Amino acid sequence: MTVKSKLLELLEQHKGETLSGQAIATELACTRAAVWKAVKSLREEGYTIEAGPNKGYMLAKETNRLSVEGIRPFLAKPEAVVKLFKEVDSTNQAAKKLAVSGEAGHGAFVIAQRQTAGRGRRGRTFISPEDAGLYLSVILEPSETLKESLLLTTAAATAVYKAVKKVCGISLDIKWVNDLYNQGKKVCGILTEAITDFEGGTIETAIVGIGINLYHEPGSFPEEIKAVVGALYGDKAEAERIDRNLLAAEIVNLLLEETRELKLSKEYVEHNIVPGHKIQIIDGERSRFAKAISICPDGRLLVEEKDGSETRLSFGEVSVAIERHGG
Q1: Are 72 and 58 a contacting pair, CB within 8 Å?
Q2: What is the pTM of this model?
Q3: Is residue 326's pLDDT more than 70?
Q4: Contact indicator for 89, 83 with CB cutoff of 8 Å
Q5: Which domains does the chain have, with CATH numbers?
Q6: Residue 123: left (phi > 0), alpha (psi -120 to 50), or beta?
């Protein structure tokens, strides 16, 4: 770890506190000149580090830049491999490469300031403007069967729900199976991909990709989806009030906690907006309407068809959208 990286980690741990140059040099086992050089470099990267004669250095409390050093102090497993990219095609792809190469294992994650080819379900694009959201993918080694793979997604939705409520004070709605909504608009999508052992029928590694819109960057979303895409906050200034490093860490912490024993959480059921509604089920080019009854313990959705029969749906078969216009 470089002096600059060690310094940033130290300043993040003491954000808002003034540390003397000598104390920092002693802590980092380097010269005061090396400390000054590292401070200068961090300032050039946009960090607000205040200093004064005989006062030392302080990372301004309002500093809210994503960094590995800023995330790590909040992690339940601070030894985890964490990779931060200014820009990447897809955090899921980057995480998958790390997992397949053996560079990173359970609990490691990739986070990016921007994705150029963010991916949603069924080949859709997840638009990821720079710094306007949190885009991260977590590597899990659940050793579960393919039958239980749906519960990985429900666990991820629960983790995001809990983390956003804890850090931001916002209570989101969950839409079966993998979306979260704020005031009627989608603010988070989850894409779970599994690397499987076909002979044993087990999941060797799962990559859970999570994309959250913190605020809307003007002009970043096409007109056709503006009406349905939302964000946690109304604008950039409002979004800057929350610590995105803390939010990212809490999502990972809670995801690891929720997947320790895979089961359907009460939060996922209680805050789900689908059961009790008339829904449209889209399967390829065909669609039909039915009534959502409840969410089954394995994460599937129990629906009542028009003829009165019941069907259990999984995310691998259909996409579900609440019908907003009746009929």
Answers
A1: no
A2: 0.86
A3: no
A4: no
A5: 3-59 (1.10.10.10), 68-270 (3.30.930.10), 278-322 (2.30.30.100)
A6: left
